[in-house]
Amino acid sequence: MRFSGSLRQNHLFQRLYRKGKSAVGGLVVLYCRPNGTELNRVGVTVSVKLGCAVRRNRVRRRLREIYRLNEERFLPGFDIVVVARGRSVRADYRDLEREYLRLAERLHLTKTETAE
Fold this sequence. Notes:
CATH class: Alpha Beta
Oligomer: single chain
Strand order of the largest sheet: 1-4-5-3-2
């Protein structure tokens, strides 16, 4: 992630849950809040309820990779938390990516495409 850092401190996650905007989908939930910098900070949360460590880590890796590959689409200056839901364990990568980007657009986190 060239233009982003990771969100690791618990109080930042808690502040996002309390004061941030959210968008809910069937596979993931996205929370965002402006952070006042030129960088995005991204955190991924996967509950123990989703299964063993292997499954949780696979979902976590997929969500981080989706952000990494689409990083240039995101506007800078936001804290973003992605919470995996139960169906994300069995979801196809394309479906996961499609929903992730759809929710990001709903929260106005992506750059708008200009018609030429």
